[in-house]
Amino acid sequence: VGNEVPNVDVFEGAPDKKVNLREATQSGKFVIFGVPGAFTPGCSKTHLPGYVKMADTLKGKGVSEIFCLSVNDPFVMAAWGENQEATGKVRMMADTCGEFTKAAGLELDLSAVLGSVRCKRFSMLVEDGKVSKMLVEPDGTGLTCSLAENLF
Ligand code: BEZ
């Protein structure tokens, strides 16, 4: 909390569609939440659907955009967003090489279950480029503090 958002590019929809999350969150209020993996049961049944359902409520509280981030490739993230009817509500960001995850200190080695180092489950409120609230699941994958209803 208090730090700037990592100055890192992530990808939206395709490997050539870069989004720099520091630039994208420079002015106004934003939510970034991170998940261990696209299409995993907890992320698909609870975490992402919660943000999709609460998108209008969060936007009513002044949030301009909601970003979902995972260490996955951009095509998988786009397909997951379509599958979850997230279009227009939650933007699906691929942290393809885990650079954002590393810079934010959120790495979690899930090699044994998902094949690689992934991102801990978290939610972050960003105001004018600075992290104003940071909720990281204590065990890295649980579904407690980082759920949409706990952000405000
Ligand atoms: C999940 O269901 O969200 C999950 C499954 C395996 C590893 C991490 C998360």
Automatic annotation (TrEMBL):
Q: Which GO terms describe its molecular function?
A: thioredoxin peroxidase activity
The entry's protein name is Peroxiredoxin-5
Q: Which Pfam families match?
A: Redoxin
Name the reaction it catalyses. a hydroperoxide + [thioredoxin]-dithiol = an alcohol + [thioredoxin]-disulfide + H2O
Signal peptide boundaries = none
Function text? Thiol-specific peroxidase that catalyzes the reduction of hydrogen peroxide and organic hydroperoxides to water and alcohols, respectively. Plays a role in cell protection against oxidative stress by detoxifying peroxides and as sensor of hydrogen peroxide-mediated signaling events.
Query: Do you know which InterPro entries this protein is assigned to?
Result: PRX5-like (IPR037944), Redoxin (IPR013740), Thioredoxin-like_sf (IPR036249), Thioredoxin_domain (IPR013766)
Q: Which family does it belong to?
A: Belongs to the peroxiredoxin family. Prx5 subfamily.
Which keywords does UniProt give here? Antioxidant, Oxidoreductase, Peroxidase, Redox-active center
One GO-annotated biological process of the protein: cell redox homeostasis
An annotated GO cellular component of this protein is: mitochondrion
- Residue ranges annotated for the Thioredoxin domain, each copy included: 1-152
Top enzyme class of this protein?
A: oxidoreductase
Q: Which PANTHER family match?
A: PEROXIREDOXIN, PEROXIREDOXIN-5, MITOCHONDRIAL
